[in-house]
Amino acid sequence: MATTNINVRIEASLKREAQNLFDDLGLSMSSAITMFLKHAGTYNGIPFEVKLPTPNQETQTALAEYEEMKKHSSRYNRHNSFSEVVDEILNDV
Predict the structure, then answer these.
(1) Exposed e or buried b for every residue in 45-68, given b needs 16+ CB within 10 A?
(2) Are the C-beta atoms of 72 and 83 separated by less than 8 Å?
(3) What is the pTM of this model?
(4) How far apart are CA 21 and CA 17, in angstroms?
(5) Closest CA to 19 of 35, 33, 8, 40
(6) What are the pLDDT digits (tens) for 35-49?
(7) Which domains does the chain have, with CATH numbers?
(8) Is the pLDDT of residue 76 over 90?
(9) Are 64 and 37 in contact (CB under 8 A)?
(10) Where are the alpha helices (DSSP H) in 1-93?
């Protein structure tokens, strides 16, 4: 069977990490990439889930609070500098 070359540009550190993993598994880089491509063909797509990360509950709560603050911005003090924030806190003490 005829073969062909694929040229891919990746970060050097990613290549080293992958090479170390494949070495531990007894695979060459070429064999690992071939396995991925064959599995993608069998799967008829990327052979793993590709999606945006879902924020954890704490982040979701913070984002909801931020959206609420944007809706009712007149309820919240705005500051132009960190020193204004410090001054307000010190005045409240």
Answers:
(1) eeeeeeeeeeeeeeeeeeeeeeee
(2) no
(3) 0.55
(4) 6
(5) 33
(6) 999 999 999 999 998
(7) 1-51 (1.10.1220.10), 57-92 (no CATH)
(8) no
(9) no
(10) 12-25, 29-43, 57-71, 82-92
